[in-house]
Specification:
The chain is an all-beta fold and 116 residues long. It has strands spanning 3-7, 11-12, 18-25, 33-39, 46-51, 58-60, 68-73, 78-83, 92-100, 103-106, 110-114.
């Protein structure tokens, strides 16, 4: 059974930091590209960070570039999202996504709220 389980979402003050984790099971983690998406109320789901398997090629959305860092640990089947300098505009449900060829999987999401 494929599972992606996110954790680490919380309420944090503007300017703060947070690290999200997503642990995978039920598929070969190391062969899958891993993404973080987010979705705010009334907005479309947005791809914000992606880390590939080959050479750990990484891309970021402009909205998070320089503030967020994606990384993966294939020994732990886990992908991380380190988020710094958070603003209220980062408030969203954050989703983990895995894909390879025509296979793709989603986590259930974790809520991040940035507010004073």
């Amino acid at each position: 059974q494929v599972q992606l389980v996110e954790s680490g979402g919380a309420l944090v003050e503007p300017g703060g930091s947070l690290t999200l984790s997503c642990t995978a099971s039920g598929f070969t983690f190391s062969t899958h590209t891993m993404d973080w998406y987010r979705q705010s109320p009334g907005k479309e789901r947005e791809l914000i960070a992606e880390i590939h398997t080959v050479g750990n090629l990484i891309t970021y959305a402009d909205s998070v570039k320089g503030r967020f860092t994606i990384s993966r640990d294939n020994t732990k089947n886990t992908v991380y999202l380190q988020m710094n300098k958070l603003t209220p505009e980062d408030t969203a449900v954050y989703y983990c996504h895995a894909w390879y060829s025509h296979y793709d999987y989603w986590g259930q999401g974790t809520q991040v709220t940035v507010s004073s």
